[in-house]
Design goal:
- The protein is mainly α.
- Helix content is 69%, strand content 0%.
- It contains eight helices and no strands.
- Helix 5 runs antiparallel to helix 6.
- The relative contact order is 0.15.
Length: 153
């Protein structure tokens, strides 16, 4: 049986925009570049993809991990200030989820997923309250983890 994240949300999930989300993706990247924590989170996910998936040579072998450490430091500072929970925070944690997924650290992926689930449930009104593109990213990330670990999503 699918957990609540997918069981009740699947029909609504596929009723989003018909066109590919190029404009939304570009806006998401622009938004990331206006905030230090999100910039490092985007660098973390992007460099991890380059290192683990496309095998692109990087200037430093541990560059994604260095970006992840910086992102975690900034995330801790952000959380310590008790700032409002918003989609930017969830996206930052999702980018950390991505590096752990590329590294195949499934326990860390589970922790990030549970944190995201807690934040959108307790602070944002549930999965449906997230933007279409963020829901889609989380949905596919959840399915990838389930496939890779042979566990329910």
């Amino acid at each position: 049986m699918f957990p609540a994240i997918s069981r009740s949300d699947t029909p609504a999930f596929f009723t989003g925009p018909v066109f590919p989300g190029q404009q939304a993706a570009a806006q998401m990247i622009r938004d990331c570049l206006t905030d230090e924590m999100q910039s490092y989170a985007l660098l973390t996910a992007s460099s991890a993809r380059m290192k683990f998936l496309t095998r692109t040579p990087l200037s430093q072998a541990d560059l994604p991990e260095q970006y992840a450490d910086t992102t975690m430091h900034l995330l801790r500072k952000h959380l310590a200030r008790n700032e409002t929970v918003d989609e930017r925070l969830i996206l930052t944690i999702f980018f950390l989820w991505a590096i752990e997924s590329y590294r195949r650290d499934w326990e860390a992926v589970r922790i990030h997923r549970e944190m995201i689930k807690y934040l959108y449930t307790e602070h944002l009104g549930g999965f449906h309250s997230l933007s279409y593109h963020l829901r889609k990213m989380i949905w596919f990330g959840d399915r990838f983890q389930a496939t890779a670990t042979a566990t329910p999503p």
